Amino acid sequence: MSQTQAPLASQDAEALLARVQASFVRQGLMQQLGARLVRVEPGLCEVALPYSDRVTQQQGGFHGGAMGALADIAGGYAGLTVLPAGMEVTTVEYKVNFLAAFRDGELRATGRVLKGGKRIIVTMAEVRHVAADGKVSDCAVMQQTLVPVAQTY
Questions:
Q1: 35 falls within a domain
Q2: pLDDT by residue (tens digit) across 23-62?
Q3: Domain count, the chain
Q4: Which domain holds residue 41?
Q5: Is residue 20 domain-resident?
Q6: E strand spans, the chain
Q7: How confident is the model at residue 90 (pLDDT cuts 50, 70, 90)?
Q8: At what angle do helices 64-80 and 10-24 cross, to 10 degrees?
Q9: In the beta sheet, which residues pair with residue 11?
Q10: Residues 6 or more apart from 39 whose CB is under 8 A from it?
Q11: CATH no. for residue 36?
């Protein structure tokens, strides 16, 4: 949050979380993979993905496609938080760098808005692996371009 931005009232924070949650539960892929929302704030969204056989590649580690999808979702919902009600976002492009491979534990993707606008929104996401013992390691980074679109549901 920038120094000039006032903190959200608890009622506004609850409404923002409810709005993102209502959209998130409509994400069939995230539901299939077992992802969950962890944190939602203006310009920020954190999503977790537990290790399971649904998210692995042939050597047993988290699949790059699962990491990319998680980063895309975290960045996309961070972008949604800066738009008015009745709007959604769609991803125009993203670029991801995979830094390391992991298995077990869970992935945590934190998306942040770098530049919010009426026509495009630029976000970034950091994906970290959280091991069972609590050790946190960098896994991937992503930069993304979103376009605001009207909500259709």
A1: yes
A2: 999 999 999 999 999 999 999 999 999 999 999 999 999 9
A3: 1
A4: 10-150
A5: yes
A6: 36-41, 44-50, 87-98, 106-115, 121-130, 136-150
A7: very high
A8: 140
A9: none
A10: 45, 46, 110
A11: 3.10.129.10
